[in-house]
Design brief:
Elements lengths: L1 E8 L3 H12 L4 E4 L21 E2 L2 E2 L3 H12 L7 E2 L7 E2 L4 H15 L2 E3 L3 E8 L2 E9 L2 E12 L5 H5 L4 E3 L14 E4 L3 H10 L10 H6 L4 E4 L1 H9 L10 E5 L6 E3 L12 H25 L7 E5 L9 E3 L7 H5 L7 E5 L3 E4 L6 E4 L7 E4 L11 E3 L8 H7 L2 H21 L8 H10 L7
Parallel strand pairs: 1-2, 1-10, 2-7, 10-22
Antiparallel strand pairs: 3-4, 5-6, 8-9, 9-10, 11-17, 12-15, 12-16, 13-14, 14-15, 18-21, 19-20
Length: about 450
């Protein structure tokens, strides 16, 4: 039976950063990942760009997450952190997804960590509130793994739930989650034709676009075409239950990712429902392809490069941890004594009921802390939870779910697991000040 200091279940973005942080902390670390690459929503779900590393002019997401971007910049695979021309957030960060896959693997291997691909969590053995081992299903059968510490980076709190930690799913009032989205990447776009139209039609765009910002943007984003989208829906050409289109240029000029499909009333934790969501997402992308080529200037000769590859999940389950982060905590810009990450991303709820996206905006430069207690639960002494399924209300989760933020959460979780393993203590005994010092040593940002 293989034994590790730290086993991370899930190689999405938060799990990848957690594993790198744990391995750099001298822990023998393994990622168990069901797919074939690291990076999760950024590499397997087509999400692009990352939003946001900043709170106003201050960069609050640093550490390993930012180091990845610096490495991609050096390769010409990211332009870095750019001003958001929509002014929804301070910055956004386009990147090349294929390069990110490889760079995350390099960072993990350079740190001494390893990854087991094509492995799915099947069972968990718990003894006196401590996870003794897990069983994963691989191509050659079942494999049992032991570890001092486990990290749940599954996105759905799968490991935590199997270990006996209570979870809640979706909106408190009815259990509904934010809609899923199937992204679509299109190439061969005449970006300068699109830019010219946007400058001349700023009043038709959403949020706070300014002509000068669009004119000088090195990468374009566009949120608008509400009237045209409504007309297409009325004509039966579009079945997507939302009010407009949203798309972003990637690291490659003329290549855009559409974040527009909206898949309602599906459950990411139900295999039948999730399978059907993949079908619905691709159907919606086919409609979008025709719409974009017919309606959006610059997209007349655009071609679809890929959909997905997998449907994107915004939310599903949250653990009931030692503290539940709330929307009020975020809007009050709370700095907890046990803050392990800081974010400036606003509350961003895509309505589970259909059209509409609700926002809880922070003041310019506003930021909030994420406490260590949201990542641990009393029912598990050797489990740390990272990523979008930490302990948070439906509204608060809608803010902390984005990739730069979960990267910072992941780094803290990886360090915490490594320290707990090395000290031979459970996660509830870990001195918070020591964890915070170690985060700073790995260049994480914790100061308001």
């Amino acid at each position: 039976m293989a034994h590790f200091d730290v086993v991370v279940v899930g190689g999405g973005f938060s799990g990848s950063i957690a594993a790198i942080a744990a391995a750099r902390s001298q822990a023998k670390t393994l990622i168990v990942e069901s797919g074939s690459c690291l990076g999760g929503s950024l590499t397997s779900n087509g999400v692009n760009p990352m939003m946001t590393f900043h709170a106003g002019e201050k960069q609050v997401i640093q550490g390993i997450t930012d180091e990845l971007i610096v490495r991609l910049q050096a390769l010409g695979k990211s332009p870095g952190h750019l001003q958001d021309p929509s002014n929804f957030t301070a910055t956004y960060t386009p990147f090349d997804a294929e390069a990110m896959k490889h760079e995350l693997e390099l960072m993990l291997h350079e740190a001494g960590g390893s990854v087991l691909y094509h492995a799915v969590l099947a069972d968990v053995q718990v003894r006196e509130n401590s996870i003794h081992n897990i069983t994963v299903c691989t191509r050659s059968g079942l494999l049992t793994l032991e570890a001092d510490m486990f990290i749940d980076a599954s996105g759905d709190a799968t490991l935590a739930a199997k270990a006996g930690v209570p979870v809640i799913k979706g909106r408190e009032s009815d259990g509904k989650s934010q809609p899923m989205t199937m992204t679509m990447k299109m190439g061969n776009v005449d970006r300068e034709k699109l830019r010219a139209w946007m400058i001349d039609n700023v009043d038709k765009l959403n949020n706070a676009y300014q002509a000068d910002d669009i004119r000088h943007a090195t990468r374009l984003s566009c949120h608008g075409f509400a009237a045209e989208f409504a007309a297409a829906r009325a004509a039966g050409e579009i079945t997507i239950p939302r009010e407009d289109v949203l798309f972003f240029e990637t690291n490659t000029p003329g290549e855009f990712v559409l974040n527009t499909s909206r898949i309602l009333d599906h459950d990411a934790t139900d295999p039948w429902s999730l399978s059907h969501a993949e079908f619905v997402g691709r159907q919606q992308c086919r409609e979008l392809e025709v719409f974009m080529q017919r309606v959006v200037p610059g997209f007349e000769d655009a071609i679809v490069l890929q959909t997905g590859p997998s449907v994107g999940v915004r939310s599903s389950c949250q653990i009931v941890g030692s503290y539940q982060l709330t929307a009020q905590d975020l809007l009050d810009q709370t700095h907890f004594d046990d803050t392990i990450a800081i974010s400036g991303y606003p509350i961003d709820i895509h309505s589970p009921d259909g059209e509409g996206t609700a926002h809880g905006q922070l003041p310019t430069g506003g930021m909030y802390g994420i406490p260590w207690r949201t990542m641990i639960a009393s029912q598990a002494t050797n489990l740390v939870v990272v990523g979008r399924c930490i302990s948070a209300t439906f509204e608060a989760q809608a803010a902390i779910r984005t990739t730069p933020t979960v990267g910072a959460i992941g780094q803290a979780g990886g360090i915490a697991a490594a320290l707990s393993s090395q000290k031979g203590i459970n996660v509830h005994q870990l001195p918070v000040a020591e964890l915070q010092d170690a985060i700073r040593q790995q260049h994480g940002y914790l100061d308001f």
